[in-house]
Structures are given as C-alpha cells and as structure tokens.
Design goal:
629 residues, alpha+beta, Triger factor/SurA peptide-binding fold, Chitinase A, domain 3, 4 domains, disordered N terminus
Length: 629
C-alpha cells in the first residue's frame, strides 16, 4: 500500500486514487491507546489532530465500494469484517492523522489558489478542447463516489502529506553494494550431482499384523469417515420433457417444410474465374481474340496471369458481392467466356469451370426433425400451464409421484449423494439437472419439506424432495480394509524410504562419494550443470532448486522428488559467480523496485515514530457509533 502511494499515476482513475490514497495514508499495525466507553465524536486522535465519525464512515463506505467492484458483487458488513476492512480503514486514517499532525506542527500548507490550479490543469478534468470542463470534473468524481468538497479537501491533504513523503523518500536509490549482491545472487549457477532414490528401494512392503493396522486405522479413522448422504427424488420440467411428437400431424409437418423450404435447399454454386483488364479497349481486344479462336487460358497467359490470379472461387449467386458479375457468371455455360463486364476494379472477362446444381432435401429426410421442432415449440408455449398444473396438484395433496404421473413426467431417484456430488463408491453422480444448485439446496432442506423449484437455464424447473438422510459416521476398518491397507503400505514405504535416504545422507556427509552410494544402491548418479535459482529445473523441481541453493559449495542435502514417490540425495559440486556481476547488470525495473521498497520501509519507520511521539488514541465505541449511522 505504501508503494502504491508513491507510484500511482497515469489515468484519471489512477491519479484520483493516488490523491485519495495519500489523503488516507495506509499504515499496517495500529499503535497507541484504545478506549472503549467515551461519547467523543472522534474515532481517533493524534496530538491535536482528530478523525471524526463521519470521516471514518465515508472511508469505510469507500473501501466497501472499491472491494465490491473488484469482486463483482456487494460485500456485506460481515464479509468486510472477515476481510479486515475495518482495521484497514482505521490504519489508513491513523496514518493520515499523524502526518496531518506533523504537517500542522511544521506549519505546512497549500493555498486554495494552488489547489484550484492543480485541479484546472489536471488532464482528467479536461474536455475535448484541452481546457478544464466542469462537466468532466463532475463525471469523474461521480465515478469514484466523491463530492467536489471532498475532492478539494483530499487534494489539500494529499498535497501537504506529499511534502512530507517526498522529504523522506525523494531520490531514494538502492546502494551499489546492494545491487551488486543482487546481481551475484541472481546470476550464480551451480553444478549438482544427485541420486534419485525411488520407493522401490524399500518395496514390497509386507502386510502389517491385524493389531498394527487396527492401531494405525484408529489414528487415521477420520480420513475414512462416511459423509452425510441424501436420497433425492427430482422431476425436471423443461420443454423437451413435455414435447409430444405424436400430437403433430403430417399436414403440419408438410406445411412447415414448404414454408421454410429455403432452409432445406442448397443453392447452385459455380466455380468462377476472371481476368481484369486496365481498360475497356484491352478487354474488347481480348474478347475479339476469344471469338477468333483464342482460349481463356491463352488470354490469361498473355496478360501475365497465373491460375491463382484468375480464380475467384466457388460461390452461390448470393455470395458474389457484385451483382453484374453474379448475373454474368450465372448465365454462362461451363467453359464459356462472358462478354466484357464492368467490375469494381475494371472491365473483366469471366469463365465458369464447374457447376454444382441446386439440391433440395426431400421431406422424408427432414420430417422427423421438423416434427420434433414443432412439438418443442408447442411445449415451450405450454410450459407455464404445466407448471401451474403441477403446483395445483401438489397444493391439492398429490405426492411428487402422483403429480408426475398425472402430467406424464418422470421421477428420477438418486439413492445416495454427498455434498460433493459423489455416490458412496466415490464416483461423481452424473446427469443431474442444475447439479450444483440442486445439491446445494438439497443439503439445506430436510425430509418431508415441499421445496421451491429450481429454475433451469432452459427456462424450465426442477422439483425435488429429500427421501432419506444418512448422517455422517465413522466407518469400521472392515468397511474400508482394502483402502486402509494400501494407504498404510504407502505411508510405511514413504517412512522407510525417508529413513534410507537419511542414512545415505549421513554416509555422504561422512565422506562416502555419491558414486559409491549409487553403486551400493544399484542406481545412477546424475549431474546437472548450470542450475540457477530461477531456473525452474524440471528434474529437480522448485523444492529441489531451493534445497540446492540452501547449502554452500560441497554441501550435501535431501529433498522429496517432484512425484512424492522418491527422495533425492544431492551434492553441490561447483558454484560459479556470474562474470561481470555489478550494479549495472541489474535491470532498471528491478532498480526502481528495490528503491521503492527501501523508500517505503523508511516511510513506514517515520510514520511509526510519529505514532509513538503523538500518542495516538483510538475510540472503539466511537467506531461502533459511526457504523450505526
């Protein structure tokens, strides 16, 4: 947050955010005295500077608004508290108060004229003519929920506080010694020797005794507990569920087919070629040559055109954008050359090389689909009537099954499903309509309750009821014996491999070479060169690279393989400093980042010192009154 104070700029949103941010200066960690039972109108004080209840509430509401925009929905008071918004607001106001008090004691300030100048010159408030626009000013402030007087006050506070911030941090640079250390740190690479020890070194694992497995199971039985399962019955009511194809007559199908015949018609298509000429004289001469016996290809060759140059493509008549060209092309026989046609790019000669005749799908090929579509259309219109009939039937005392039978709907029963949508065998229950919402609502309901229907994305409904509830319970070892045994063996293999790897690490540290250890274990020693901290090496993995750079040259260590089924014993064989590593080898972006971080640290220390010096007091009861407005 302190870094944002020093760098926010650019767009009008960023500039305005900077002003508000500096004016409400964030400080993480609240010091000072906390009171609980006064009737003060100040939420906090720092020396002779105080923050009112209204200022706290405005800052709080602005934080809620910003957070709501970020996550795309309105944040409730409870959610805001859980996210620490109240503490963040208090920290911001506290930091601003100590800076205001320091500015007051130093006699810092800014004139109204200067504030007006800053506002007038701000590009965020300029109209299309480049001059200050009151309309644009009002618009920008509305976007961030500020009144003009609040903006002016924030501008004044920001300007004064910026004087303090700049005095403490202006011109801050990371020292050359620090930058050189960064360059050495980033550029160092290492050669690593390593042995990957697989779990097969300690496998197979023999079965444990019954008492051993039972004791282990008792310690881990919560992993095998059965979740709560619910038996759910549901009826889906969507257009396809009530569509009745038998109610659609052959005559209706025929009429719809004839009314929409173009939907079943593939128009005639032609492959068209053209030669474009620079003027009508050249085009007329070419046409005369054709009439004298020259071919279209002869003319194209004489014009320096290739086949790719002349071929327009294969089109339906409606797909050719120029009507004159379309009419001419669709009047030709295959191989015939057209008269001169005036095209958009000049006069042209056309030739059609192939014709695909119009094709119409017969009624017999599409009647079934038409019948389904007509039935579905009728069902869409009847859906709400069926919904009302369902509600009437249930209100009259009919059971779900009786109501479904009356309306020719299907009742589907899911015998057991947990909150994660899984059956007792662990498989995901598929085919549930609006599954996420249905499962959520089902676990918030109870047996014997008639629930409100769930709306579907197809403008339908899902009716459901809970038929049975099986509470969560611990399973016995007998119920999960196979899985528990497999898990015990996996854990035991991991433990034994860890012990084996630790034993090999001790031997390596005692002077045994990795070659000797590899020979003993009948494994291969591998060597990896040029490993860097940010290499993301696929063999060593992130944890492996971190372990390799956690020891010095000659250092030996262990880390878990990326598949969690192996242990890797390694030795850092060589370390290499980057050639020419110095302050200048650190890129400019990194330099700015380090300088900003150091400036922020210094600024934090200044604010912390001011807090201690001015004896900050926070009135919790005043905060509660502010939130009660």
């Amino acid at each position: 947050m302190l870094g944002a104070m020093r760098t926010a700029a650019g767009s009008w949103v960023a500039k305005l955010f900077f002003i508000v941010l500096v004016a409400s200066f964030a400080v993480w960690g609240i010091g000072g005295r906390i009171e609980g039972g006064s009737t003060s109108n100040s939420v906090l004080t720092a020396g002779d500077t105080s923050v009112s209840l209204n200022e706290y509430r405005l800052a709080y509401d602005r934080q809620i608004s910003t957070l709501s925009q970020q996550i795309g929905r309105r944040v409730t008071r409870e959610q805001a508290t859980a996210l620490g918004v109240d503490q963040r607001v208090l920290s911001q106001l506290l930091g601003g108060a100590v800076l205001d008090e320091q500015a007051r004691r130093l006699g810092l300030g800014i004139s109204n004229t200067r504030i007006a100048d800053l506002t007038r010159d701000d590009p965020a408030f300029q109209g299309t003519d480049g001059r200050f626009s009151r309309q644009q000013f009002d618009y920008v402030l509305r976007q961030v929920g500020m009144r003009p007087e609040e903006y002016m006050q924030s501008q004044q506070q920001a300007a004064v506080r910026r004087q303090l911030v700049d005095a403490a941090t202006e011109g801050m640079k990371a020292p050359d010694a620090f930058l050189k250390a960064v360059a050495l740190y980033r550029g160092e690479d290492r050669t690593v020797e390593y042995i990957t020890m697989p779990r097969s070194l300690v496998e197979p694992i023999e079965d444990p005794s019954d008492s051993t497995l039972q004791a282990w199971f008792e310690k881990n039985k919560t992993k095998y507990a059965a979740p709560e399962y619910r038996k759910i019955a549901y009826v889906r009511l969507e257009p396809q569920d009530i569509a009745d194809t038998a109610s659609v007559s052959d005559e209706q199908v025929k009429q719809d087919y004839e009314a929409h015949l173009k939907n079943y018609t593939t128009p005639e298509k032609r492959t068209v070629e053209q030669i474009v000429f620079k003027d009508e004289t050249a085009a007329g001469a070419a046409l005369a040559s054709v009439k004298g016996g020259a071919t279209f290809d002869d003319i194209a060759k004489s014009q320096g055109k290739t086949e790719a140059d002349t071929k327009l493509g294969t089109f339906a008549k409606s797909e050719i954008p120029e009507q004159k060209i379309a009419d001419a092309a669709f009047s030709l026989k295959v191989g015939e050359v057209s008269p001169v046609v005036q095209g958009a790019f000049g006069p042209v000669l056309l030739r059609v090389t192939s014709v695909t005749p119009e094709a119409v799908k017969p009624l017999s090929d599409v009647s079934d689909q038409i019948r389904k579509d007509l039935a579905l259309g009728d069902a869409n219109r009847d859906l709400l009537d069926v919904h009302d009939s369902w509600e009437d039937a249930r209100a009259g005392g009919a059971t779900m099954q009786e109501a479904a039978d009356k309306l020719k709907l299907k009742v589907v029963t899911v015998d057991a499903i947990d909150r994660e949508g899984r059956a007792p065998d662990g498989t995901v229950v598929k085919g549930l309509p609006e599954s996420e919402q249905l499962i959520k609502d089902a676990f918030e309901s109870d047996k014997g309750i008639e629930n409100d229907p769930i709306s579907t994305k197809n403008d339908g409904f899902v009716y459901y009821e809970i038929r049975d509830i099986k509470p969560a319970h611990d399973r016995t070892l007998e119920e999960v014996h196979a899985k528990a045994l497999a898990d015990w063996k996996t854990e035991e293999a991991t433990s034994r491999l860890g012990a084996k790897a630790t034993e090999m690490e001790k031997k390596a540290k005692a002077g045994t070479s990795l070659d000797e250890i590899a020979t003993e274990l009948k494994l291969e020693k591998e060597t990896k060169r040029g490993v860097k901290r940010d290499s993301g090496d696929p063999d060593l993995g992130q944890n492996g690279v971190a372990a390799v750079f956690g020891v010095g040259q000659g250092g030996i260590g262990l880390f878990s393989g990326s598949d969690d089924k192996s242990q890797v014993l390694f030795k850092v064989a060589e370390t290499f400093e980057p050639a020419g590593a110095g302050p200048d080898s650190v890129d400019e972006q990194a330099r700015k980042m380090f300088a900003s971080g150091m400036a922020n640290d210094l600024l934090q220390q200044v604010v912390n010192k001011l807090q201690a010096e001015y004896g900050v007091t926070v009135d919790r009861s005043a905060i509660q009154r502010a939130m009660a407005f």
